[in-house]
């Protein structure tokens, strides 16, 4: 046997408490992006995801996400974010703005909502006004931003890195 023994789909246990992170997606153009975000959210033990508009999950992409992740659909995101903010959640958007913080220097609050913008339009002004914080992920090449699902997945990973026990 070699130096490394292959362990496919190693299950990590040890969450002391459920994650207090909610993923909230503005209306998006691609169900593929929504489904990729759902799959990563489920792998990160996130229990709640909000999608808007006519979005739906593609089961072949989201895979096991539907069994562990509660997905709720709403017409618009604004009223939902206002309620979550009143319930004590910090509302954090992924977007490039004049005051966005580099994700490498950002510390999530345990009770956070991660708002993911549209692939082309980002996060519209009415939703930007509801955010408590805005983070951006540095880009070193072209294009000037990451795909919505890629950016959401990086932010999900960073949240889990900061709160590995839940």
Automatic annotation (TrEMBL):
A molecular function (GO) term: RNA binding
Pfam assignment, any one: SpoU_methylase
Keywords tagged on the record: Methyltransferase, Transferase
Protein's name in the database: SpoU rRNA Methylase family protein
Statement: the UniProt record of this protein carries the keyword Methyltransferase: yes
InterPro entries hit by this protein: Alpha/beta_knot_MTases, SpoU_MeTrfase, TRM3/TARBP1, tRNA_m1G_MTases_N
GO annotation, biological process: tRNA methylation
Residues of the tRNA/rRNA methyltransferase SpoU type domain: 21-157
């Amino acid at each position: 046997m070699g130096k490394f023994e292959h362990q496919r789909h190693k299950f990590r246990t040890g969450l002391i408490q459920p994650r207090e992170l909610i993923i909230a997606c503005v209306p998006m153009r691609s169900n593929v992006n929504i489904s990729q975000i759902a799959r990563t959210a489920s792998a990160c033990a996130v229990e709640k995801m909000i999608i808007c508009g006519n979005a739906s999950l593609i089961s072949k992409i989201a895979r096991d996400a539907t069994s562990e992740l509660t997905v709720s659909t709403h017409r618009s995101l604004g009223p939902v974010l206002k309620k979550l903010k009143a319930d004590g959640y910090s509302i954090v958007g992924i977007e490039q703005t004049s005051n966005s913080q580099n994700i490498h220097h950002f510390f999530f609050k345990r009770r956070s909502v991660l708002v993911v913008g549209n692939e082309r339009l980002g996060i519209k002004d009415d939703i930007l006004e509801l955010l408590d914080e805005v983070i951006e992920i540095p880009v070193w090449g072209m294009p000037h931003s990451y795909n919505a699902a890629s950016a959401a997945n990086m932010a999900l990973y960073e949240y889990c890195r900061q709160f590995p026990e839940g």
